[in-house]
Automatic annotation (TrEMBL):
Residues 6-67 form the HTH iclR-type domain. Residues 68-213 form the IclR-ED domain. InterPro entries: ArsR-like_HTH, GAF-like_dom_sf, HTH_MetabolicPath_Reg, Tscrpt_reg_IclR_C, Tscrpt_reg_IclR_N, WH-like_DNA-bd_sf, WH_DNA-bd_sf. This is IclR family transcriptional regulator. GO terms for molecular function: DNA binding; DNA-binding transcription factor activity. GO terms for biological process: negative regulation of DNA-templated transcription. The lineage of its organism: Bacteria, Bacillati, Actinomycetota, Actinomycetes, Kitasatosporales. PANTHER family: HELIX-TURN-HELIX TRANSCRIPTIONAL REGULATOR, ICLR FAMILY (PTHR30136), HTH-TYPE TRANSCRIPTIONAL REPRESSOR ALLR (PTHR30136:SF24). It comes from the Bacteria. Keywords: DNA-binding, Transcription, Transcription regulation. Gene3D superfamilies: 3.30.450.40, Winged helix-like DNA-binding domain superfamily/Winged helix DNA-binding domain. Transmembrane segments: none annotated.
Length: 213
């Protein structure tokens, strides 16, 4: 902590991070131990966060992340999209295929930014807002590879025909971005993905990851 920071705000944010990392919530005692502060401080932090609907407590007294974070989360996608667009534009133009940024939304993959190449005669119509299961399509499979720590090759995932007949996809996960699970990829009308495309997709994913750090 420095003179310019707020200790109370810091503790409140740490509470939210701790609660976000658990599916079962935490008790006041557990939070007190993890934060290294007494229970009275934790009670005050939780009461303040509850007033803003950022935290809720169940009947058993366990604290969990509240629905108020959804209102904050709605503003995340536009910020992420803006940061990713330069790398997506360059990728789409270099490859001549539709480039996309996909984020995890619950149990699904959600395309939040899509850039189509300007110079090709045809390309796959892929729209922002498109959803699909994480275990189908290159974008979702790349995210799952990152979850499993399989990123030796940049986490590159290649698929064909899983989301659209005749279309192939390549995607690589975002790595080292706190609080965001996602991938960058391309989709094209082709039977296979050429060898030069994989490394370029991995490079674009790294560029987006760096922009979001």
């Amino acid at each position: 902590m420095t003179a310019e920071t707020s200790q109370t705000l810091d503790r409140g944010l740490r509470v939210l991070k701790l609660l976000a990392d658990t599916d079962h919530g935490l008790t006041v005692t557990e939070l007190s131990n993890k934060l290294g502060v007494n229970r009275t401080v934790v009670y005050r932090l939780l009461a303040t966060l509850e007033q803003h609907a950022l935290v809720r407590r169940d009947i058993g007294g366990r604290a969990r992340v509240g629905l108020g974070v959804l209102r904050l989360g709605r503003q995340v996608h536009p910020l992420v999209r803006e940061a990713a667009l330069p790398a997506l534009r360059a990728l789409a133009e270099d490859i001549g295929a539709t480039a996309h940024l996909t984020l995890v939304d619950g149990s699904e993959a959600l395309a939040v930014a899509v850039v189509e190449p300007t110079w090709t005669d045809y390309h796959v119509a892929y729209r922002a807002g498109f959803r699909h299961p994480l275990d189908r399509g290159a974008a979702g499979r790349a995210i799952l590879k990152a979850r499993q720590g399989l990123i030796q090759d940049g986490g590159l995932a290649l698929t064909h025909g899983e989301l659209e007949a005749g279309a192939s996809g390549a995607a690589a996960p975002l790595v080292g971005v706190s609080g965001i699970e996602g991938s960058v990829g391309v989709v094209m009308l082709a039977d296979t993905v050429s060898e030069r495309i994989g490394p370029r997709v991995v490079e674009a994913a790294r560029e987006v990851s760096e922009a979001l750090r």
